[in-house]
Specification:
This protein is an alpha/beta fold. It has a domain of 275 residues: FAD/NAD(P)-binding domain (3-Layer(bba) Sandwich), CATH 3.50.50. The chain has 13 helices and 19 strands. The strands form four sheets. Strands 1, 2, 7, 8, 9, 10 and 19 form a seven-stranded mixed sheet that branches. Strands 6, 11, 12, 13, 14, 17 and 18 form a seven-stranded antiparallel sheet that branches. The chain is globular, with a radius of gyration of 23 Å.
Length: 542
């Protein structure tokens, strides 16, 4: 069956020529770029957003969901990743699955994210002071608190005040939390017996109608596509930025950043268009918001006589200290119906083992998975069931599989990095990113600790354990961080506490790439908070 989608029409007749010199050029339209662009446009600034990928049609989402369900397609097919445009190399101890990690398009990675939005804890900003590990951030949790609250309102977050381990809050969540799933109730008795506390997890999806978007209708394919729009994507703030006068140019991959003769300020952002032309967008301020892989890559591609090792790289830290959240999981079978495949996202977690006194094991959060088996609709489509047979398959699709996952803390390591692979070029002749990723002893020990807890829970339930993640070869949670890290010392970091690069006075980076340490919480809410903080400083400069 052919599934026709409309994102990549070459003859779309869109004007992609540059604007006259603008106040701000934002590179990237994911959550960081969209929130920064909206914040600055709302303040009255002239903003242009450059996005490497296309503008996807919302009306195509049902067909994208069908792509995900049908076995003829792979994950990367859903949002059309791959080919020369998205070529990369992975040469570290572990393979890094970049093209399942990112989406190039208006909305960025939020087009396929799961939508979990916990805050980082106070200890995440103080790793060196508390444990002698990594580095301290030049800002604290209290510095970000008002921005966390603002992003929760902007995205629309459903949550509850039932997490005793959560850092201090200043206001309730905008929406009530989603109720626990049936599978969560099976875990609850065992966790209670073991004095392990389950609680809700903040979600950037609507538990009720919010901000013009519908309540969640339960498609269950949130990751990688929400057909209803109930899950937040950065398209929301792209549209709000445009309503405030910002201009968004899609399919405009940035090729390099061009500085003035002094090497202290940027003059322009060079970008390509589908017609084969290259343009220069001049701007008073530039905000890089293209993620932890493409941000350092673009800086390295922008080398010059003044910056022979890459733009803003006098420290040598551009591309280094790549971090991820290794995933540690345990699977089990229970001799009763679990219905763990009826919800497409987690409704309960445990943050009890996040804050800790000793340096090792590190932080972790337990995830009680609600999609441990293929969804009934996926099974039905694969087997060709329709009509009454399909209804029967959905009703029967309960299963008896269970899974508990964990995200764990990985320390920044200089050898984990993004660099240029000059042996292969992309569709514009630029060297592709080369990713070097390994885990390290700290994360391995933390994964083993997480799996001991998971085994205790399953043993208490009387479930039969069927498999566990290899701590030496874990999957990545698809949360790259840390490749242009923040710091007070220009000798060891790329940006300062206001997210401005130490070397270039009108270049700001709003991205997970600025994270000094990675913690073990999903990073998107922190990305959003940092983006709003950065936008305030850019506004001051203008």
């Amino acid at each position: 069956m052919s599934v026709l989608l409309t994102a990549t029409s070459v003859t779309d007749e869109v004007d992609r020529s540059p604007s006259e010199r603008v106040d701000v050029c934002v590179v990237g339209s994911g959550p960081a770029g969209a929130l920064a662009a909206y914040s600055l446009a709302e303040r009255g600034h002239d903003v242009v957003v450059l996005e490497a990928g296309p503008r996807f049609s919302f009306e195509d989402r049902l067909r994208r969901m069908e792509r995900f369900l049908r076995p003829a397609f792979d994950w990367v097919d859903v949002w059309e990743m791959g080919g020369d445009r998205d070529a990369y190399a992975s040469t570290g101890e572990l393979h890094y699955p970049l093209n399942t990690t990112r989406v190039k398009g208006v909305g960025g990675t939020t087009l396929h994210w799961l939508g979990l939005v916990p805050r980082y804890h106070e200890k995440d900003f103080e790793m060196d002071s508390r444990y002698g590990l990594g580095e301290d951030w030049p800002i604290s949790y209290d510095d970000l608190r008002p921005y966390y609250a603002a992003v929760e309102r902007e995205m629309g977050v459903a949550g509850a005040a039932d997490n005793p381990f959560e850092p201090p809050r200043e206001s309730p969540f905008p929406m009530d939390a989603f109720p626990p799933s049936y599978a969560d109730s099976l875990f609850e008795a065992a966790c209670e017996a073991l004095e392990i506390t389950m609680h809700s997890i903040p979600q950037a999806r609507n538990s009720e109608a919010y901000d013009g978007r519908s309540q969640c209708v339960g498609y269950g394919t949130c990751d990688p596509v929400c057909p209803s729009g109930a899950k937040y994507t950065a398209e929301v703030h792209v549209a709000k930025a445009e309503a405030e006068g910002a201009r968004v140019i899609d399919r405009a991959p940035v090729q390099r950043l061009v500085h003035d003769e002094s090497g202290e300020r940027l003059e322009a952002v060079e970008y390509a268009t589908p017609d084969g032309e290259t343009h220069r967008q001049e701007a008073r301020q530039v905000v890089l918001a293209c993620g932890a892989i493409e941000t350092p890559r673009l800086l390295l591609l922008s080398e010059s006589d003044e910056y022979p090792d890459g733009l803003a790289n006098s420290s040598g830290a551009v591309g280094r200290y790549l971090m991820e959240h290794p995933f540690a999981g345990t699977d089990a079978l229970l001799m009763e119906e679990t219905r763990q495949n009826h919800v497409g996202f987690m409704t309960s977690e445990c943050h009890q083992f996040y804050d800790h006194d000793d340096s090792t094991p590190g932080s972790l959060k337990l995830e009680f998975i609600n999609n441990a088996e293929p969804a009934p609709v996926e099974i039905a489509l694969r087997d060709g069931s329709w009509g009454d047979d399909l209804v029967g398959a959905i009703r029967r699709g309960s299963g008896n599989s269970l899974r508990i996952g964990a995200l764990v803390e990985q320390l920044p390591r200089e050898e984990n990095r993004v660099q240029l692979d000059t042996s292969r070029t992309d569709d514009h002749g630029n060297p592709v990113p080369e990713i070097v990723w390994s885990v390290g002893d700290h994360a391995i020990e933390t994964m083993r600790y997480a799996q001991r807890i998971q085994r205790r829970i399953f043993n208490e339930m009387g479930a039969r354990i069927t498999g566990q993640t290899d701590p030496h070869n874990p999957g990545a949670a698809r949360h790259p961080m840390g490749t242009t890290r923040m710091g007070a010392d220009p000798e060891t970091s790329v940006v300062d506490a206001r997210l401005r690069t130490h070397d270039i006075e009108n270049l700001t980076i709003a991205s997970s790439s600025v994270f000094t340490t990675g913690g073990a919480m999903n990073p998107t809410l922190t990305i959003g908070a940092l983006s709003l903080l950065a936008a305030e400083y850019v506004d001051e400069d203008l």
